[in-house]
């Protein structure tokens, strides 16, 4: 693996399985030395992708609510409105994303929570109003290191950890997820702190962290893409900046995936270890969930196909980070998504109204919209 800096941007090259093995071995040694507690690294190598019969996805947190939302069926996928248990209390919508995933294989059911929204008030309040049971959770998944995807995590754990399994594991994309993030404020370009996910806070809640820089099977029913190869026309659109820093125990250890000269640098964020969460639905194909898609939704789906060996794509869903996309670029990306020929496309969070409208134009009859509280059922 190689990296270089050009015009202030971090450019990452593809890495081989041999590189991945070095990553795994190097960070395992760091863990063994006691630098980070409750942390493991996924082993590099092929995985056996499981097949499920059904999947229910509850949109626990997203940026919009709609009390007039109507059920809809497209290609064997059903969307239904989510109503709060107390009609005097609305579901809380905010910028961010959290999905409550319930796959089923035969009689075996699993429950995973993917991302945690911006605030604990939103995720905890909506869990209560939708009567979702934290004690059923088999695993937690975090997609990448942006605050609007993990900001509610620690408050969620404080509220619900005692009810969840003692051996609870959280699957993170990789070491990059724990780097500090910054955003530019005002016309002067001053940097503001956009949060650092401190793994010590997770360890205090007795949650083990597995770094999924290589693909991983979760709970025998889901799988992650691992680090996503960037091979399409897509580019990382402007978002945060990232600091490759480890200070007073917080931050990220970049020694195993970046050259030494990158230590301490703050650069435009390329989300090196963002990953997608995926399912293989029996007789239908892949369901690929991209929580924010900074590295490209086409890249993410291609990675899921390569990892699984499955070419049929049933559904692409989640945040695609195309809200800030220029019109000509957006048109190109949607055309590339159309070539993947998914049965349904379900944009959320940062995808943008511009994306939804362009997708509806190029892929008529395939786009399903959702709001906070929506239940999406696959395999009906």
Write structural notes for this entry.
- Helix content is 21%, strand content 27%.
- By secondary structure, the protein is an alpha+beta fold.
- The chain has one domain (3-378): Ribonuclease Z/Hydroxyacylglutathione hydrolase-like (Metallo-beta-lactamase, Chain A), CATH 3.60.15.
- Strands 3, 4, 5, 6, 7, 8, 9, 10, 11, 14 and 25 form an eleven-stranded mixed β-sheet that branches. Strands 15-16-21-22-23-24 form a six-stranded mixed β-sheet, with helices on one face. A four-stranded antiparallel β-sheet has the order 13-12-17-20, with no helix packed on it.
- Helix 2 packs across helix 4.
- InterPro entries: DHPS-like_MBL-fold, Metallo-B-lactamas, Metallo-beta-lactamase_dom, RibonucZ/Hydroxyglut_hydro, TAT_signal.
- Residues 107-160 form the Metallo-beta-lactamase domain.
- This is MBL fold metallo-hydrolase.
Q: Quaternary arrangement of the chains shown?
A: single chain
Provide the CATH architecture.
4-Layer Sandwich
Please tally the β strands and state the result. 25
- For the record, the CATH class is Alpha Beta
Supply the helix-strand structural class. Answer: alpha+beta
Mean pLDDT: 90
Provide the CATH superfamily. Ribonuclease Z/Hydroxyacylglutathione hydrolase-like
Assign an overall shape: globular
- Sheet with the most strands? 11 strands, mixed
Low-pLDDT residue intervals, each spanning 5 or more residues: 1-37
What's the end-to-end separation, in Å? 43 Å
Question: Fraction of residues in helices?
Answer: 10-25%
User: What is the gyration radius calculated from CA atoms?
Assistant: 20 Å
Tell me the number of structural domains. Answer: 1
Domain Metallo-beta-lactamase: 107-160
Organism: Bradyrhizobium canariense
InterPro entries: DHPS-like_MBL-fold (IPR041712), Metallo-B-lactamas (IPR001279), Metallo-beta-lactamase_dom (IPR052926), RibonucZ/Hydroxyglut_hydro (IPR036866), TAT_signal (IPR006311)
Protein name: MBL fold metallo-hydrolase
């Amino acid at each position: 693996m190689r990296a270089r800096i050009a015009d202030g941007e971090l450019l990452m090259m593809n890495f081989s399985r041999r590189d991945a093995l070095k990553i795994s071995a190097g960070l395992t040694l760091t863990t063994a030395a006691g630098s980070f507690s409750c942390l493991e690294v996924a082993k590099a190598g092929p995985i056996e992708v499981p097949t499920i019969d059904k999947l229910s996805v509850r949109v626990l947190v997203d940026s919009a609510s709609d009390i007039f939302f109507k059920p809809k069926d497209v290609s064997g996928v059903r969307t239904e409105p989510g109503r709060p248990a107390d009609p005097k209390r609305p579901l809380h919508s905010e910028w961010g994303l959290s999905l409550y995933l319930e796959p089923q294989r035969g009689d075996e059911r699993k429950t995973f929570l993917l991302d945690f929204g911006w605030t604990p008030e939103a995720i905890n309040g909506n869990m209560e109003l939708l009567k979702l049971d934290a004690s059923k959770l088999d695993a937690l998944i975090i997609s990448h290191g942006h605050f609007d995807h993990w900001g509610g995590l620690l408050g969620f754990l404080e509220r619900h950890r005692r009810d969840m399994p003692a051996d609870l594991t959280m699957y993170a994309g990789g070491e990059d997820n724990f780097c500090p993030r910054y955003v530019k404020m005002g016309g002067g370009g001053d940097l503001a702190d956009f949060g650092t996910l401190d793994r010590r806070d997770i360890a205090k809640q007795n949650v083990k962290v597995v770094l999924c820089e290589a693909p991983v099977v979760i709970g025998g029913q889901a799988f992650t893409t691992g680090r996503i190869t960037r091979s399409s026309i897509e580019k990382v659109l402007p978002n945060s900046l990232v600091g490759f820093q480890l200070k007073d125990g917080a931050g990220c250890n970049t020694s195993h995936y970046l050259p030494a000269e990158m230590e301490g640098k703050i650069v435009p964020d390329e989300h090196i270890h963002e990953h997608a969460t995926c399912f293989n639905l029996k007789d239908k194909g892949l369901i690929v969930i991209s929580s924010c898609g900074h590295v490209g939704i086409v890249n993410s789906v291609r990675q899921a196909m390569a990892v699984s060996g499955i070419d049929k794509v049933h559904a692409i869903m989640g945040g695609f980070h195309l809200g800030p996309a220029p019109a000509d670029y957006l048109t190109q990306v949607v055309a590339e998504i159309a070539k993947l020929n998914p049965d349904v496309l379900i944009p959320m969070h940062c995808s943008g109204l511009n994306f939804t409208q362009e997708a509806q134009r190029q892929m008529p009859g395939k786009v399903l919209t959702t709001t906070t509280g929506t239940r999406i059922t696959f395999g009906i």
